[in-house]
């Protein structure tokens, strides 16, 4: 139980001053003494005698007359509201009953049950005396909580020093109506009387005395309110400040871990040198750091997407593992044909793509497949996704798998947020630092939202990001004239999968649309064939401009077949 003596003094100043200063009403009989009229024989009457002991405890004696054939109950709360966020707390001891009845005392209430006849209830109350400015006040609910209407209540109070003031209130709890009689007699006695007190109503008595008459023992408990629970106090303010510093430190750590990427993305990068010449003077394409098309998209956006797999399919064709054939008909379709078996030169994720398209064993083994068949049957690309995430870690571009890292931090943030909710509830009910719980919630939510930025690239991965930007610039600016005629088709084909994954396919196709596909001594593209000819007798594979018009439709059909699996994001970079 909280003992807030500062709050106690403030509460007494706020509530007791008005209570004590209320002027006593005139006696209903017009004289200085209490009424001597007798209670009705079938009514309940109560006579209360109070004695304030020198140790500050209040001895109470209640004589209660209950008519024949009736029984009554009185319940007195020992915790009474002073204001919305403060209770005054009393404690009762040595409770006894002489007569027909019983008394029960708990930490929260005093309960008296009496049968017909006259019974005497005795008990002691602690917590009735409070210091108020330059005087003391003794306060107790002398009657109230009765289960029946009372005919008359008379009260007399004796204190070690002569009382200086008396205030008596009667009526519903919280009301400010004065008692029928309240006065101070010459023999250090304060008296009060109320004629007719309804069931559930109360009668409160406050007696003012000289300062230091007895030891003050009033006790107060702060109660729950949202305003108090979420108040900005020195403790809650310090906690918020500490958590803010912690969050800023986390942001700084995240920036340190990813700052190399930020600098790479913010720097102006020119085209990288991806064209290399051999000893014979032939020019070829070499990707930066040996990165493959499927790896490029995963390193850049930290996700395995449909476009990554589509670019891998095109790359497998360019490297002579599969053949892509355009099928004539009213509805465009394409056939993917096995050309060479998967070998040790393929990465594990490339093998997974190859097996997904053209299984080499089992009941679904096949040497060719139409894209329309793939779309109808659906593909299982789970192995592709798992292998490609693992591959970028094996290549030392990431410290850990980016998907697992995002998921881990998302769950950590969610857990912190849930714990923050529970902490907020507990702190709100028990303390004034519930703002700390809200700060924990905010921190958890921020961590969950920020989980998408958690995967940390290695120094090699950050360098690759910079090189990929240069590769993109090469795809945007390169022209056939920069390449010897005999090597243009090969450079065009080897670069095309990278243009696909980096969103530069349309520009790349347009730049090389006038390319002579037979300049290298071979008829048309070596990895793409068309089963139809145009009206002028040219084959789509021979005419790069014709190919440029058909290839985007092939990519759209391939994307659709891959997206049908539902395992990957279908956003094209």
TrEMBL record:
The keyword Membrane applies. The keyword Ribonucleoprotein does not apply. The chain crosses the membrane at residues 238-257, 409-429, 435-454. It comes from the Bacteria. Residues 1-22 form the signal peptide. Residues 287-512 form the Predicted membrane protein YciQ-like C-terminal domain. Keywords: Membrane, Signal, Transmembrane, Transmembrane helix. InterPro entries: DUF2207, YciQ-like_C. Pfam families: DUF2207, DUF2207_C. Residues 46-164 form the DUF2207 domain. This is Membrane protein (DUF2207).
């Amino acid at each position: 139980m909280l003992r807030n003596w500062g709050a106690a003094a403030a509460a007494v100043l706020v509530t007791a001053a008005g209570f004590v200063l209320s002027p006593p009403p005139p006696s209903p009989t017009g004289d200085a003494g209490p009424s001597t009229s007798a209670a009705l024989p079938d009514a309940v009457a109560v006579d209360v005698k109070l004695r304030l002991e020198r140790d500050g405890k209040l001895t109470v004696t209640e004589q209660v007359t209950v008519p024949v054939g009736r029984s009554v109950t009185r319940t007195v709360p020992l915790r009474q509201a002073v204001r919305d966020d403060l209770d005054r707390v009393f404690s009762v001891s040595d409770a006894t009953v002489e007569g027909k009845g019983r008394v029960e005392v708990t930490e929260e209430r005093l309960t008296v049950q009496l049968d017909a006849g006259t019974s005497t209830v005795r008990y002691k109350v602690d917590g009735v005396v409070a210091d108020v400015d330059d005087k003391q006040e003794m306060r107790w609910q002398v009657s109230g909580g009765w289960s029946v209407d009372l005919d008359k209540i008379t009260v007399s109070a004796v204190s070690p020093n002569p009382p200086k003031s008396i205030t008596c209130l009667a009526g519903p709890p919280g009301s400010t109506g004065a008692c029928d009689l309240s006065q101070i007699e010459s023999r250090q006695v304060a008296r009060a009387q109320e004629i007719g007190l309804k069931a559930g109503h109360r009668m409160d008595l406050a007696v003012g005395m000289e300062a230091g008459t007895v030891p003050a023992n009033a006790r107060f408990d702060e109660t729950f309110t949202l305003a108090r629970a979420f108040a900005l106090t020195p403790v809650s303010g310090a906690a918020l400040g500490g958590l803010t510093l912690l969050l800023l430190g986390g942001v700084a750590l995240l920036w340190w871990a990813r700052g190399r990427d930020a600098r790479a993305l913010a720097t102006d990068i020119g085209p990288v040198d991806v064209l290399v010449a051999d000893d014979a003077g032939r020019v070829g394409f070499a990707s930066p750091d040996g990165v493959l098309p499927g790896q490029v998209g995963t390193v850049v956006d930290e996700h395995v997407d449909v476009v990554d797999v589509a670019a891998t399919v095109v790359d497998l064709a360019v490297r002579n593992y599969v053949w892509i054939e355009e099928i004539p008909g009213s509805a465009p379709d394409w056939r993917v044909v096995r050309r060479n078996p998967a070998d040790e030169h393929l990465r594990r994720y490339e093998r997974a793509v190859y097996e997904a398209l053209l299984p080499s064993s089992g009941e679904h083994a096949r040497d060719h497949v139409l894209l329309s068949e793939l779309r109808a049957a659906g593909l299982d690309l789970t192995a592709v996704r798992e292998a490609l995430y693992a591959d970028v870690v094996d290549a030392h571009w990431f410290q850990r798998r980016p998907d697992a890292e995002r998921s881990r931090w998302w769950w950590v943030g969610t857990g912190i947020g849930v714990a923050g909710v529970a902490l907020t509830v507990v702190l709100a009910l028990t303390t004034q630092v519930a703002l700390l719980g809200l700060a924990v919630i905010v921190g958890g939510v921020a961590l969950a939202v920020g989980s998408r930025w958690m995967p940390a690239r290695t120094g090699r991965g950050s360098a690759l990001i910079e090189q990929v930007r240069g590769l993109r610039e090469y795809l945007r600016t390169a022209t056939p004239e920069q390449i010897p005629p005999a090597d243009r088709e090969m450079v065009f084909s080897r670069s095309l999968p990278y243009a696909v994954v980096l969103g530069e396919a349309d520009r790349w196709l347009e730049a090389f649309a006038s390319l002579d596909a037979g300049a290298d001594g071979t008829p048309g593209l070596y990895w793409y064939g068309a089963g139809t000819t145009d009206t002028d007798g040219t084959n789509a594979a021979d005419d790069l401009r014709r190919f440029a018009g058909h290839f985007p439709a092939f990519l759209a059909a391939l994307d659709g077949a891959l997206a049908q699996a539902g395992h990957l994001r279908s956003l094209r970079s």
